[in-house]
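Hello, quick one for you while I still have it in my head. My current little project is about how a certain protein chain folds up. You're getting the sequence in one-letter code plus the fold written as tokens. Would you mind checking whether the tokens look sensible for this chain? Here's the protein in full, and shout if anything looks odd to you:
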Amino acid sequence: MPNCISFQPTNQDEKDDFLDLMMDELILRGIHPVGDIEELRGHLKNKLVMEHKLCQHLKQLEHCSKLEQALIILLHKIPCILHGENHVGLKLLSMVLCEGFDNAEKGLLFAHIRSEMERIKANVYQIEKILNTKILGDDDGPVLWCLPYDNDNKMVGIICLDNNRIRKVML
């Protein structure tokens, strides 16, 4: 069935027709159709899932008999502004840390240290010291926050800070 998102074309004509259909559907939904057939299929699937969820939410709202019921349902669908602030702060911190680690790898930070791994370790130590004794704690009462850094993959891991702490870091 060529109109199904799971359709697997068996010849070039079917592939061309299916690709045209997917491109039309993506353009209809405001997505620029770039990529191979599997990438386009993935983009279209994601958009269709979002549309399905939206339709379910609209059906729930249609069944509400009172305005108050509709508002309560809507409030449960909208994320809290504090969670948004927390996610944005964590993303900004992650981006700054990644930039710092790139600079440490290149030797722009801790240039006096010859070993790349030692520069990275020095960077981790410096970041942890600043956060634990200057931002989240002080010299008399430091906190024990550890930077999640994966030495093997040379990546900053998932950072978990509550909203109050990420707000302190961002100030």
Remarks:
- Residues 81-170 form one domain.
- The longest helix spans residues 37-62.
